[in-house]
Design goal:
Aldehyde Oxidoreductase, domain 3; binds uracil; Pyrimidine Nucleoside Phosphorylase, Chain A, domain 2; globular; 3 domains; Transferase, Pyrimidine Nucleoside Phosphorylase, Chain A, domain 3; 43% helix; 16% strand; 4-stranded mixed sheet
Length: 427
Amino acid sequence: MRVVDLIEAKRDRGQMDPDAIRAVIAAYSRDAVPDYQMAALLMAIYLNGMSPAELAPWTDAMLRSGQVLDLGHIAGVKVDKHSTGGVGDKISLPLAPLVAACGVPVPMVSGRGLGHTGGTLDKLESIPGFRTDQTVERFVELVGTLGLGLIGQTAEIAPADKRLYALRDVTGTVASIPLIASSIMSKKLAEGIDALVLDVKVGTGAFMRTIDDARTLAETMVAIGQKMGKKVVALLTDMNQPLGRTVGNALEVRESIDILRGEGPADTTALTLELARTMLSLGGKDPAEAERALKDGRGLERFRQIIEAQGGDPRVVDDPDRLPTATREVVLEAPRDGYVGAIDTTAVGVAGVCLGAGRAKKEDAIDPAVGLTIEARLGDRVAKGQPLVRVHHADRGVDDALARLRAAYRIDDAPPTVGPLVIDRIG
Ligand code: URA
């Protein structure tokens, strides 16, 4: 196989040969295809898409780039959740322990920040000592004993996605329906689940900007999962403003603790419970248990246990000030009286990346402490000078971040119509 033939076929809107697809993914996984050729192929796919006849071997090759876990010896229906990516989307952190505390095992393999969106692994690693690079054996043991494990792709689990994900992050090739669908489904199908809940984000901060595109992505992923014999449900949820009140890794861990304490913002608490109920019903349990486990502190206790089991400092749960904290702060103020009429949520995410909460290049290090506190939400009435966003920084990228945030907030004379958080359910 010549990789350049595949690139040219896709560039010219032709069909890629299934065997060539399998070969290129396998070769890239063992470092036998250079990043520049893979980047060109990804861009051709981004621009020209993939047919179902191409997507099936592409996803299958990514899934088979590593091992497919067998969790059959662990009792219960194993259920995971995955989000297509948003700004301030920390839901996996409170959700996984909450669902595990209700008796449904959650084997969770997550990703890092991608483009303007944050990643579960980066958030977890802002907890001092927390290791997401557990061995597969330890991961399986954690799912068996605590009912959950929180890891990233390893050399064993969908390693092709690990490499492609990092390359897409820095080559402008993230927001592609076939690339997102194959990325998510390859790692989810490799982790030994029986059922999956997908949170497909739509809006100004999502990779899918329209409900039609989000629906197509959801249907594509549900179809891939069902073909593999899994129960898959997708929720389409709103991403026209940051989720919750924080953006940035340690800040989002703080908010996750608040959610599990029953003191979280209304939207992140509601979405955590909605996704938990869906996971519990797929797992054959009473969905109402989710709210009970939040109220009686079982979810928080399980979070403390998994932090400790994965090497982190469990004291952060009672004393979040132990998390990395940025010492400097500037405030973006409302330029005039009015209502928050629209938020360019991608620009808010990029502002976080400028501060160091995400990566601009593959090898960039994250600053776990920096980020944003969202002080004004869509539809809020604001007076001139009132805080819109609090910027927690370490003297890096502040002017750039402030300029982006200023441009991201539109203040109108009349209040906007704000849609529901959960827009639709598929599957
Ligand atoms: N989440 C993933 O795991 N992969 C993508 O491509 C996008 C979001």
